[in-house]
């Protein structure tokens, strides 16, 4: 049974958010890394600023235009989080996106744009199109487990989750979540790092990106949310090994050699004890290489 066309926030028969062709709703994602301020290996967290953009098809916008609804100026107005615009008290459908590994939000800016037939966005989705964008400065968790060879390599994750079904159905077995899809256009990796500052200290970005699709862990008795995880790869800089590994080892070995040389000269002119020197050098190297 069709719903009344006067209720512009409700879908009519055959209409679907995200995708007009009857498949699962599709939400196209882009992520840019603006900055990486700190990596805390002890707390398994990294602090940075990310720019997340999502776009989806909203068929109810056509009927809103036909009914003469006035849309706000999307070029100038910042809109409330996860609510493109409000007509009366009914909010529009959104995929209700979240960052699953975000543990602290320091600052956030959020806004929306609506693209009509004559103002299509770059995404390959049918108009009318809603584009949601948020810039978040926050603290994100990660598993610190660097691969050792040839140099320490670590990945920083950004896990984007959708917490909203394509329609608010009473039967939970018929609920369909949006399908989150990262932008796969050529040259996208360069856009991820294009405006990002290089890491300070011992880490640097190497430009490799991995994308994983799946579901979150079970958070209730019946619901697992779709998640897409983007991982950016980084590696330790050569200066870390120079100043944190090789130079300390060299100084320890040199110091051990000098101490033994002075000790032998002061020991009543006895011969230089090579066995003692070998033993001291071995202990120095072992101490320097211990974690």
* Percent strand: 25-35%
Using only C-alpha atoms, the radius of gyration works out to: 28 Å
CATH architecture verdict of the largest domain: Distorted Sandwich
Shape: elongated
- Multimeric state of these chains? single chain
Number of strands: 11
Under CATH, the topology of the largest domain can be stated as Acetylcholine Binding Protein, Chain: A
| N/C terminus separation | 69 Å
Largest sheet: spatial strand order? 6-7-2-1-9
Secondary structural class: alpha+beta
Topology, element by element:
Elements (H helix, E strand, L loop, with lengths): L25 E15 L4 E13 L2 H7 L19 E2 L2 E2 L5 E3 L2 E14 L13 E13 L11 E10 L16 E4 L5 H6 L9 E13 L10 E11 L1 H29 L7 H16 L2
Parallel strand pairs: 1-9
Antiparallel strand pairs: 1-2, 2-7, 3-4, 5-8, 6-7, 8-11, 10-11
Helix pairs in contact: 3-4
């Amino acid at each position: 049974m069709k719903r009344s066309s006067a209720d512009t926030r409700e879908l009519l028969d055959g209409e679907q958010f995200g995708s007009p062709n009857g498949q699962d709703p599709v939400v196209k994602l882009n992520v840019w890394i603006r900055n990486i301020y700190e990596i805390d290996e002890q707390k398994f967290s990294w602090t940075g600023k990310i720019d997340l953009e999502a776009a989806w098809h909203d068929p109810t916008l056509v009927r809103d235009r036909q009914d003469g609804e006035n849309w706000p100026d999307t070029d100038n107005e910042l809109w409330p989080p996860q609510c493109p615009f409000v007509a009366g008290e009914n909010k529009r459908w959104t995929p209700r996106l979240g960052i699953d590994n975000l543990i602290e939000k320091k600052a956030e800016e959020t806004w929306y744009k609506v693209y009509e037939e004559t103002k299509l966005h770059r995404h390959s989705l049918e108009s009318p199109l809603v584009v949601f964008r948020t810039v978040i400065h926050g603290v994100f968790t990660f598993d610190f487990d660097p691969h050792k060879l040839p140099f320490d390599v670590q990945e920083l994750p950004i896990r984007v989750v959708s917490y909203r079904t394509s329609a608010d159905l009473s039967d939970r077995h018929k609920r369909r979540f949006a399908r989150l899809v990262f932008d796969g256009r050529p040259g996208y990796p360069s856009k991820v790092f294009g405006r990002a500052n290089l890491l300070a200290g011992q880490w640097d970005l190497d430009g490799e990106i991995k994308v994983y699709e799946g579901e979150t862990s079970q958070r209730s008795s019946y619901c697992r949310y779709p998640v897409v995880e983007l991982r950016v790869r980084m590696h330790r800089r050569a200066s870390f090994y120079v100043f944190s590994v090789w130079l300390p080892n060299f100084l320890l070995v040199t110091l051990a050699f000098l101490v033994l040389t002075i000790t032998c000269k002061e020991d009543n002119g006895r011969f230089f004890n090579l066995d003692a020197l070998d033993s001291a050098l071995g202990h120095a190297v072992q101490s320097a290489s211990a974690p």
